[in-house]
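User: I'm curious whether this sequence folds into something compact or stays loose and floppy. Could you predict its structure so I can see for myself?
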Amino acid sequence: MSASAAHTFGKKERICSRKLIDKLFNEGGSRAMAAFPVRLVYTRCPREAGQPAVQMLVSVPKKCFKRAVKRNRVKRQVREAFRLNKQIVYNSLPADSDTTLLLAFIWIDNQLYDTAVVEQKVVNLMQRLAEKAMRQGQHRLSAAHQQGSWQGDTQSPLASVHAADAAPLADKVMDAADSSTVADPSNP
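Assistant: Here's the prediction. I'll summarize afterward.
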């Protein structure tokens, strides 16, 4: 993410497509976490041309606030907190990723909070999400290292295999290694 785009929140960063919203809420595979009074639902989807690495939406149900003025205030607070701190999430994502991270911030309380409190809760959620992304990245790297596809500076053919596809492959390789018997020359 460039320095000039660090504190912007453009139209492309919003989830406007019904297809993406359905993917986030209806298709499964989404994860959620909460930092009261905000809940974060997130998932990954393949990135299309011109699509940013992270897209988000904010939802404040009428059940929480009947008056649109209050709902709009909460939406502004959450969007501003995301805009000012989105580098937390962007920095945790791989630069060459071919997926988009879809985020939905959902308000779950029927009280208004100060902007500083809302920002603190949104930042908390984004930091936890970034930690999960970093752990998954390290897990993928260690899985690639265990199956021998990562050899320092050298690139092996398996290095391009996606981590989700590589895990079953690593299990098969380990099972094959366990089932084959190799004679130990030091032990007659």
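Summary: The beta strands are 31-35, 38-46, 54-59, 99-107, 150-151, 154-155. The mean pLDDT is 80.
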